[in-house]
Design a protein that fits this description.
It is a single chain. By secondary structure, this protein is of the alpha/beta class. It contains 31 helices and 27 strands. Helix 8 (225-239) packs across helix 15 (439-446), helix 13 (368-394) crosses helix 14 and helix 17 (568-592) packs antiparallel against helix 18 (597-619). The structure holds ligand PAZ and manganese (II) ion. Manganese (II) ion binds at residues 694, 755-756, 789, 791, 851, 876, 878.
């Protein structure tokens, strides 16, 4: 792996180049030693005191590896104990944002891909340290990954406004993060040293090279367009889960591509002209054909014939067109009849624009809308047909279409798909790519030598859809805005300027003619933006530490979402629920930030951003990839974070924690007075009853007005009545307590996925954890990495456990053994065997900030903890019902939740609100 052990020259410097935290990585020890001694040539001069104030070391001073981003090592200092094997090194001058960029400069659009890296928060988290030791994670650290985390941004500009693009690069200083020796030009000879080189492809890479030099002082290094297209397509198809989709008869469906079965395929890139490339592997391809009738033809002819001033306008016109007025149809020739013998319906186009020859009409007599549609159909069919023929020629079954001609336009895709389907008689599939226009730019980006991106896997990418990106009527999709104020003012402007994306356009199911294709576009309406791809592409977060949860019985077929939102009824319902929640959530969020004017402004911007997302998704539910309820709930949290609401339920969580901790001792002594059997039932009842504290449920929030936390908790417990709606308790009890006097062996390690703060975790899950500990099972509490609603986070859990441990020896000893009690920390790290004989209670973060959990992408901590686990307890609606209800695990799994939504109860269990679910499934 191109990581810490990279074999390139400048080896000793590599340790610095790869990242600031050299701690925890055994491999880096020698480099740290070198650093201490001021070794390794010039690279570490800043550390040893020589040239303390030296500017960032440039490529000139040392031959750098091109494999990783540069770090500014000036004033670097070892933090803490010098004797420690792998001390943390502080790099005070390291900017938190290192950027890299590549371009595809086409005839009409400039596509820009850039990478920004943010340093991790250097919080000295004692929990993490001990957990790493406990779980044997000490050798796992970011440094063993090929690259550090960061974000990949996709932006486009119109080529004739190239100055806007240059301004953008300049304002973000994107070209500063690059030098030819790091994100290598590949030509590391002396002539290129010190030169700032940007990789670019497309004709504009030649045409505008001087302008780039003049304006930004950078050299453009041209990359072959075909190489880039293929590299970009291969990357997307391997790295992004919901990238490729079919679009047939108005229905978009994502296709899961097995990377082992990706090749060969035909890549059809529709730009101004069209290239058809047979792709056989990584870097293995051949341009087998093409056609000069492409996007440029549509736009050029369209401009002449309709006087449209932009491509998007032309496409938009087609939405309202009827090509029958201008195209000669089979029916026109056959007196309104189908020519069914050869499979042609009366409405099949016999000759594009053919009617114009027999009618005594001038250009002005035709509606521009009809001309545009006729032209669009002509070109799309033609491309579809030639693609089919080429796929046939080489025996290829899959054809991927890319390029900005498509523009996420439903009708264009349907037309191409129809042609491929029709000619191949259903044998071949036309597929489209969500990042259709960025293939070249991505490929140019990939051509920087060994940035490690190509080593990453699908679970290490998280796509997010920030709203802080200027959107101006489908023309320019500008940069994501980092500055909060800018973001908010953009949101304000957005609302003033236009309501394009807040005015959803229903997608009517298209009428097909059965034999010969569609008569009119499937999605009509003047307000529909033709460039539907505007908000289809998010920011790609690269999180190298994410892993697939190892206990999934079948990771390949895993589907986190239980409810299918492709059902319109479900979608409408959940959209309404989320919109109804919004005012209350904004109030809570604003209050959590002190209710200041600034907080109110941010709250307003958040509400607008989230509503705009919902509107966009109403318009096209699959715009951001396959849509599930979990995505919607996470999107809400992401929007809050985007407008800097760190923890909207902070106050509520605190209040409920305090109230619950106060009654915990009484609950524990009540539990302790019971028989083993009664105790187990009471504990499970307790978890279910306490799951009622859910601020994401409208019904529950209404309930909270009716009593204190403790009153509601008591009421909920009193109402517990078996059998529950799903009741596997007896099977679980049998596994735990055995039958006929035979004691089963306790589980070795249990992972408890906790849910809400307050009573839920303190009076529900902690007592259950305590019981498991008492029985000799190690317990790992799995908490959220980031706040979501009133969920408890992994960061908050140690304090809660510490408070609870004051009243309970079992919890105290286990927490000590697990390194959760700060006072006991030092003892624990070098504790005697006797002290460690207690089974530990640990805390790990789950890697997400959502009320639900997608187990394809969890923290490395959780994945490591899972290796020895033989019991999983998933708690709450989000984690056990909305997601994972049907998930099978390699170990025993208990799913516990109270259903706090009437519709969900009906839908899933034919039950009613406040029903409980206790689903137990032994190892698959
Ligand atoms: C967001 C939630 C999944 C959180 O539930 P939890 O996981 O805390 O049990 C849940 O509150 C929910 O599905 N709410 C839906 C909205 C409503 O019923 O009002
Ligand atoms: Mn919750």
């Amino acid at each position: 792996m191109a990581g810490a052990g990279d074999k390139e020259e400048g080896e000793c410097l590599n340790s610095g180049v790869g990242g600031g935290d050299i701690n925890d990585d055994g491999e880096e020890g020698s480099r740290v030693d070198a650093l201490r001694e001021g070794g390794c040539g010039g690279g570490f001069q800043g550390v040893t005191g020589r040239d303390r104030d030296m500017a960032p070391i440039t490529g000139n001073s040392i031959h750098r590896s091109s494999s990783r981003p540069q770090l500014d090592l000036s004033k670097a200092a070892i933090q803490g104990n010098f004797e420690e094997k792998n001390p943390t090194i502080l790099l005070p001058n390291q900017s938190d944002d290192i950027s890299h960029l590549a371009l595809d400069i086409g005839g009409s659009l400039i596509k820009l891909v850039f990478f920004s890296r943010h340093e991790d928060d250097p919080v000295d988290d004692t929990r993490k340290k001990t957990v790493k030791q406990r779980l044997g994670l000490s050798n796992i650290c970011r440094r063993s990954y090929p690259i550090l985390g960061g974000r990949l941004h996709f932006v486009k500009f119109e080529t004739h406004k190239i100055n806007e693009c240059l301004d953008f690069i300049d304002s973000k200083q994107l070209h500063r993060g690059i030098d030819s020796h790091r994100w290598g030009s590949g030509t590391s000879d002396s002539t290129s040293r010190g030169r700032v080189v940007i990789k670019a492809t497309g004709g504009g890479a030649y045409k505008f090279a001087d302008l780039f030099k003049e304006r930004l002082g950078v050299s453009i290094e041209k990359e072959d367009e075909m190489d880039c297209l293929v590299a970009g397509a291969n990357f997307l198809l391997k790295a992004i889960r919901h990238e490729a989709f079919t679009h047939f008869e108005g229905q978009k469906e994502f296709v899961q591509i097995d990377t082992n079965e990706l090749f060969p395929y035909l890549l059809v890139n529709i730009g101004s002209g069209v290239s058809m490339i047979k792709v056989d592997g990584e870097g293995k391809f051949q341009r087998v054909s093409g056609t000069n009738v492409g996007g440029g033809t549509y736009w050029g002819l369209g401009r002449l014939l309709t006087k449209c001033t932009s491509f998007d306008e032309l496409l938009e016109l087609s939405q309202r067109g009827d090509n029958r007025t201008i195209d000669m149809l089979v029916g026109d020739i056959y007196g309104g009849m189908d020519y069914s013998k050869i499979g042609l319906s009366a409405s099949t186009i016999a000759s594009s624009f053919g009617k114009a020859i027999s009618e005594n009409k001038e250009l002005e007599d035709y509606r521009p809308e009809d001309i545009s549609l006729s032209l669009l159909r002509m070109i799309s069919y033609n491309i579809g047909q030639i693609s089919y023929l080429n796929a046939l020629r080489f025996g290829l079954k899959r054809i991927f279409f890319g390029g900005f001609f498509i523009r996420g336009h439903a009708y264009t895709m349907d037309t191409i798909s129809f042609a491929v389907h029709f000619w191949s008689q259903g044998e071949m599939q036309a597929m489209f790519l969500r990042h259709e226009g960025f293939l070249g730019a991505l490929g140019a980006f990939m051509s920087y030598e060994k940035h490690g991106l190509d080593d990453l896997m699908v679970h290490q990418f998280v796509e997010r859809f920030p709203m802080g990106a200027p959107y101006t009527g489908g023309k320019i999709h500008g940069p994501p805005l980092a500055d909060l104020n800018e973001k908010i003012s953009w949101m304000e402007k957005f609302v003033q300027k236009g309501t394009e994306i807040t005015a959803p356009v229903p997608m009517a199911k298209p009428g097909t003619t059965g034999l010969g294709g569609f008569e009119v576009p499937s999605s009509k309406g003047g307000t529909l933006r033709s460039d539907a791809s505007a908000l289809n592409v998010g920011v790609l977060h690269l999180v190298p530490s994410l892993e697939v949860f190892p206990l999934l019985a079948d990771a390949k077929t895993y589907e986190p979402n239980t409810i299918d939102l492709s059902d319109q009824g479900e979608l409408d319902y959940w959209f309404t629920v989320l919109l109804e929640h919004l005012p209350d959530l904004v109030d809570k969020a604003v209050a959590s930030e002190g209710g200041t004017d600034d907080a109110k402004r941010r709250g307003d911007a958040f509400a607008r951003a989230f509503s705009a997302h919902l509107a966009r998704l109403m318009e096209e539910p699959t715009a951001y990839g396959k849509l599930g309820l979990a995505n919607l709930l996470e999107l809400r949290e992401e929007c809050l974070r985007e407008f800097q609401f760190v923890d909207a339920y902070r106050g509520i969580k605190q209040r409920e924690n305090e109230a619950s901790l106060a009654v915990l001792p009484d609950l524990l002594s009540e539990i302790d007075s019971m028989s083993e059997e009664a105790r187990l039932l009471t504990l499970i009842e307790g978890v279910l009853a306490a799951n009622i504290f859910d601020w994401g449920s409208r019904a529950c929030v209404d309930l909270y007005h009716k009593g204190t936390i403790i009153e509601i908790y008591r009421m909920s417990r009193n109402k517990m009545q078996r059998p529950w709606r799903v009741d596997d308790f007896d099977i679980f009890k049998q596994r735990m307590l055995g039958t006929g006097g035979e004691k089963p062996r306790p589980h070795k390690r249990a992972l408890l996925f906790v849910d809400n703060s307050g009573a839920d975790v303190i009076l529900g899950m902690l007592p259950l954890a305590r019981e498991l500990l008492r029985r000799g099972t190690e317990v790992v509490l799995v908490g959220n990495s980031l706040p979501a609603l009133n969920d408890v986070t992994a960061m908050e859990l140690p304090d809660i456990v510490a408070e609870a441990a004051k009243h309970c020896n079992i919890l105290r000893r286990a927490a000590e053994a697990g390194g959760l009690l700060v006072d006991a920390m030092n003892n624990t790290l070098d504790a005697s065997k006797e002290e460690l004989s207690f089974v530990p209670l640990m805390v790990v973060e789950n890697g997400c900030g959502s009320p639900c959990i997608d187990l394809r992408q969890v923290s490395s901590e959780l994945a490591a903890a899972a290796k020895d686990a033989d019991l999983i307890v998933l708690e709450g609606m989000g984690r056990a019902l909305h997601t994972n209800l049907n998930t099978r695990f390699k170990c025993d799994a208990l799913k516990l939740a109270m259903v706090k939504n009437q519709r969900l109860a009906e839908k899933l269990f034919k039950g009613k609100i406040y029903d409980c679910v206790c689903k137990y499934e032994p190892a698959a």
